Amino acid sequence: MRFITTGFTLLAAVPVLPGSSVASPRSYESREEDPCAKIAGLAYVPPADARACLSYFPFNETLRQNVLDVVSKVFDFYTFEDYYLAPVSVFDQPAVHIRDELARINSTSYTSDYAFNKDLFDVVNSLNDGHTGWYSYCYWQTFQNLLPAPVVSLEVDGAQDVYVVPDLVEFISLLGTNYTGYYDSIGFDWTRLAGARVVNIEGMSAYSYVDYIADTVSGNYLDHGVRVNSVLSSYRINAGNYSQRFGDLAGPVYPDLDNLTMEVILANGTEPETIVVPYLSSYLGKPFKDAASYWASNCAATNETNGVDYLTQGSAIAHSRATRQPRAALAASSSLGVGIPSQFVPNLTAIDGEDILWSYILPDNKTGVMFVGSFDPEDYYGFQSQVASVISTFQEAGVTQLLIDLSNNGGGYVCLGEFLHSYLAGANFGFPGYSSAVRANTLAQKIVAADMAMGVNDSYAFYPPDNCMFWNDTILSESYNYITPYVTKTINGVEYYESQRIYDACTPFNVTIPAEPPFDLAKVAIVGNGDCASTCAQFSTLMYERHNTTIAIFGGKPNETMQFKGMAGEQVLEWYDIDSEIKTAGLQDDPLAPPDLLVNADFRHNWRTAYSWEDEETPIAYYSDLPQLRFPYTPDTYMNPQALWIFA
């Protein structure tokens, strides 16, 4: 039997209190210069100044031991750990020996707390699973680098190349004069780069450098082809509005680089020109005045860092959250974007357009478009009503075919993905979802047993049986232990233990599902850029596997395969969530339980795995699904949703 927990013993387990030696404000008072004070209150700063502030906080052994103790024990719940013991060639994913990497980090000498946290982030990021990540809010997405030269892959005159975005002037100008004024002050004319063809970057061919960023920076997506699109600038719906992403090359979430050397042929030129383009870091963290207040505002653990015992603090999670796959706070999807230039906003009349769903009827008057920006709406039930209203409007207008745009869809509620499938497939189709399972490690088995013994139900926690249902749409009883006995699998030569197969308890929905499909399913198609995460990946896979829905993916490198879905787990638990599960079950003092974090951070993990309909022993995350159609972006479609829909 293999119940391995690689814990780390705290060398000096003391709380982070004022005056303590654990990176408290008093740790910095004796140092003469304060690089954080130098840049306090500034919206944009040179990357070197940002790094000086981040690197100012000294490495602390107690914090390392605390963080690694939490991370190593949470990895015991991670459903995909053993898949990384060998490369996954179909996705171009190298092996990552997680426990060996944690041991290396535990023995490495670091010059700062930032260096330690960045190393840990990079290791977890190399899993290319956006459902699993170490996010230290002291450093992650506090200073984000922005380059005034985002790039895209375009087909021009039959040839595909990397270009600086043609809408560069309109796009970058949306950042305002606080950003553009810096470049004016140093005499750098970024506007001349608009539409330039990029020949080389940092001495590598443009596509090779894009590959490098996809492999070392992007993370989030198992498939290399999808990560390539994440490197590039693209359109999305963000906070209810159309937005343009910088992409992972022009908008990485750490201020590691001062500049980028690009060899380009300007839009009005014929000869290559080498240009050194400076980055500028945008500050996204909480306000600070100096190093001490920076640490207090961004780095010190808060009352929301660690979980709680819901039995003593009251039920604080709604039933619907148990079926939620939280929208991943992805480095890629969260890469800074601003409102899209006005010429790219669809000029069609929106049908009930708001929040994450914008819908239109194309000029042919027979094609309806639903741009689904995520499955994480402000109103869980309102999304269902909106879908029903939009489809009813389509039908009244004589629409006979439907195009669904899933570009940069970050996922969200599992049940809303199943709802949209059910509404399109009709109630007579039957159960739409996936079988799934959680990892049956020793502590997980103890949690389920304790929840059952104490009568903990789905109002308080995710592990209780009544969160789930059997195949026949019957909720598991509170006395049904679905994790003991466990099921044994072999993954890369290692025995792996998981629960029995369970299903999401999504029904009844808030609106009536039509008995039959509202459109001929042969006339429903999906477009996107492969940056389709979690619930989006599950929805598109359902449509593909169950109905052979045509899917067209845009962008990427020429002559390279690309999946139509990004990360595809089933349900994610944040650190706060899994810590609350343990505490609510009364197991916080169990030797297998992780301690409270001493710093403000999150370690999320893929807690539940969905299995493919076509191969019920293979998680859909590891099942290769290629789109039927691939198209390059063109100058007309790369940032213009309406033009892309009409083309499709």
CATH topology of the domain at 346-426 and 517-569 and 619-647: 2-enoyl-CoA Hydratase, Chain A, domain 1
Radius of gyration, rounded?
25 Å
The coarse silhouette is globular
Oligomer status:
single chain
**In CATH's first tier, which class of the domain at 346-426 and 517-569 and 619-647 applies?**
Alpha Beta
Question: How many beta-strand segments?
Answer: 26
The helix/strand class is alpha+beta
What is the number of helices?
17
- Percent range of helical residues: 25-40%
CATH superfamily of the domain at 346-426 and 517-569 and 619-647: 2-enoyl-CoA Hydratase, Chain A, domain 1
Q: Which regions are unreliable across 5 or more consecutive residues at pLDDT < 50?
A: 1-26, 316-334
First-last Cα distance: 53 Å
Mean pLDDT: 91
Biggest pleated-sheet summary: 6 strands, antiparallel
Tell me what portion of residues adopts beta-strand conformation. 15-25%
- Second-tier CATH architecture of the domain at 346-426 and 517-569 and 619-647: Alpha-Beta Complex
